Amino acid sequence: MNSISPTQGDTKQRILDSAEYLFAQNGYRGTSLRAITGKADVNLAAVNYHYGSKDGLLEEVIKRRLLPLNRTRMQRIDAVRQKARERGNKPDIRAVLMAFIEPTLLFKESTPEAGTFVTFIGRSMTDPDDTVRRVFQRFIMPLFQILFETTCEALPRLPRDIVLWRLHFTLGSLFHTLNICGKFSTDDIEYINTRLDADSLLALIIPFVTAGMKA
Amino acid sequence: MNSISPTQGDTKQRILDSAEYLFAQNGYRGTSLRAITGKADVNLAAVNYHYGSKDGLLEEVIKRRLLPLNRTRMQRIDAVRQKARERGNKPDIRAVLMAFIEPTLLFKESTPEAGTFVTFIGRSMTDPDDTVRRVFQRFIMPLFQILFETTCEALPRLPRDIVLWRLHFTLGSLFHTLNICGKFSTDDIEYINTRLDADSLLALIIPFVTAGMKA
DNA sequence: GTCTATACGATGATAGAC
DNA sequence: GTCTATCATCGTATAGAC
After folding, report:
1. Contact, A20 vs A120, CB < 8 A?
2. Contacts of A180 by beta carbon, 8 Å cutoff, 6+ apart
3. CA–CA separation, B55 and A39 (whole Å)
């Protein structure tokens, strides 16, 4: 097969990459299909052909990165749960939080594209239009369910609604960390190194959220 | 004085209100002066006349809500500091965090317009374009400086960079709380009441961040 | 002092000529 | 492909009406 164009064959992929970048930059509503297909250098109709609709494209953009990440986090949480069951005691709350947070931090620093995706997550959480947030929520639900149950097992004396709120506070700390890392902040109060690697960040955030959870 | 037009006399205010709403809805860059003046039903040139530029307008939108809030928070922190000094011991970390967080939560629920403003803050924190974030940062710097120093005094055994990171985690929890409150979440894991009043939220978040700080 | 109508230069996208 | 003319839209500036 003679490839008469460098863009042939990977049209689907190119659309996905362009959409991810533009969604992160200008938001979902602020990104037109023309902008996406223009950047991807494909025909406008290609989106509808490959993904059915703009919403269908959004789902695929999210699934591509989120499902593998969620699989990793799920395995880590399951491992903590399994180990606790074998030893006949409750899961260690620090290990539970580690199982969720460490893969997340590692994901962010894995590739520039992952960083773009994290930017997109951050934006969707604060967007008044909650179209995107709802899709994210749908895909993260099964994982969050397990995280919640495991956390409740780790902290059996705490009411479930308190655990749920504290998990939200933990997510807030994590989101904010993901957002500020990689940005310049020369004008901050004191020098705060926003270029820390995942291990250093983990060493900072885990004691904070673990103590908060056990409070 | 006969008011021949409902828009007369309050042009400055109307511009401010429209800008605040549209900035929260579509972002700073996504909002044109023509959109603002159109919604406010005033002439395009009025923005330049009253505020000098779009950036000048942005500053006033932020100052209008943030300066009074910051005054309140500053007074509360000063009071905690003063009381500690009188008693000859270090500030209580829980009281310090309360002094910052309680006025913030009360502000959010004070008026619908304050809610809109909080939405705007949330957006600017996750926007890849950091024009707005820089303005917010500039106006919150003096307060954050005092908060940071007071927190260091309350936790003298903790290295300053650790304190700074933990303050960021605290801000993350607070931002996330401000963002999710007031939104529907019928599809959440378990019922989480996002319509809690400031006092109930305070009772939830303060133990979490206090324990995290002291970890 | 306030507000309006209108114009200006810059920018970014589009489309056609080569 | 590359260049270029064109167009819409943006923030901004100004002259004059009330």
Report:
1. yes
2. A194, B168
3. 30
Contact B172 A168 (CB under 8 A): no
Q: Euclidean distance between the first and final Cα of chain B, in Å?
A: 64
d(CA A39, C1' D2) / Å: 18
**B57: its two tokens:** 């307008």
Instruction: State the average pLDDT over residues A53-68.
Output: 94
- Distance in angstroms (rounded) separating the CA atoms of residues B50 and B40: 14
- Any residues with CB less than 8 A from the CB of A186 and at least 6 apart, and which? none
CA A201 to chain centre: 16
Chain A hits for B141, Cβ within 8 Å: 187, 189
8 Å CB contact of A174 and B172: yes
Tens digit of each residue's pLDDT (9 = 90 or more) over A140-175:
999 999 999 999 999 999 999 999 999 999 999 999
Task: Say how far apart CA A134 and CA B185 lie, in whole Å.
Answer: 9
In order of their start, the domains of chain A are 60-214 (1.10.357.10)
From the list B164, B175, B210, which residue is nearest A192 (CB)? B164
Considering only CA atoms, name the residue closest to the C1' of nucleotide D9.
Answer: B32
Q: B18-41: per-residue pLDDT in tens? A: 999 999 999 999 999 999 999 999
Provide the residue type at B41 as one letter: D
Residue B1: predicted pLDDT: 34
pTM summary value = 0.92
